[in-house]
Hints:
globular, binds zinc ion, alpha+beta, 350 residues
Amino acid sequence: MPEGHTVHRLAAALEQAFGGRRVRTSSPQGRFPEAEQLDGSVLLGAEAVGKHLFLALAPAADVPADSPAVRQVHVHLGLYGSWTFAGEPGFADAHAIGAPRLRMGEREEAHGDGGLDWRRLVPRPTVRLRIAGEHGLADLTGPTACEVLDAQGRQAVLDRLGPDPLREDPDGRARRRFVDAVRRSRTTIGALLMNQQVVAGIGNIYRAELLFRARLDPFVPGRELSAGMCEEMWEDLVALMTYGARTGRIVTTQPAHRDIEARIVERSRGTRQNGDEDPSAVPREKSFYVYHRQTLPCRLCGTTVRSADLAGRTVFWCPRCQRVRRRRAGWTREHPATPWALADPAAQVA
Ligand SMILES: [Zn+2]
């Protein structure tokens, strides 16, 4: 499932591609019949909240954002959804965003020069929503939700969501909401981090890696954690997800910890990320401390990384490094500095 940083990148890409312009909308699959009524609307903007995406469409560009004439297309990708972009050079820079796996399946038509004529792309029959503009198109397949909402409907979705670490938080309100929600709960921190009402946008990778970086046992109840520990976790999450939103990749390892297992050949284990094809990116198998590294030795202490089911998804952790169970007093971090340096010169060139 795409995590929140991917949805934020998608919103930015859609806004860049179609923002302020009239678009053609259709549903080749037929399962989003509202596309017909929206056809010819102007895309006022695209917004991400957690893993939810909202596309604001209106009859004209000068319709105020709060007008009842604005329709909100609400999209949640769920486990299998993705967006595929195609268009003129420049437009298609976004084509890898949104799908953990690069989708390249639509090259039925080509120019004489071998290039792609996006205008003649025949949509796959599974395309729920196609948005086409002057310079390119975006196809949505396999979402959990694709529906039209009014302002009240949009607000109802937002009301069910906790704070999103990728949204501005100048007065610290979002952080306080997160800290309070965690500390009120008897539920394990590993389960709380997957609860979108506690924090919006985290998926299974960020959960496992955040807990490792905090040295925190995933099975500790939220109410046993100190406010300071929760605040630092929030700040770390903001740093990690901001990096993810900027680069499209989740990288949580410090450079010094990436090569310590040189004698072990790590297999990819089915995890894919945007940017895998980019030779300057931190390779996937070096990007994580514990995610999908069960049965491999911990990068820091050599103990075998474990996995177990927690809140319906597999959690990964090092039983030796992640022994922090409660109060800040007992919390000593072997490797200081929060947020950890994510700086990787090669990864930040873009
Ligand atoms: Zn360890």
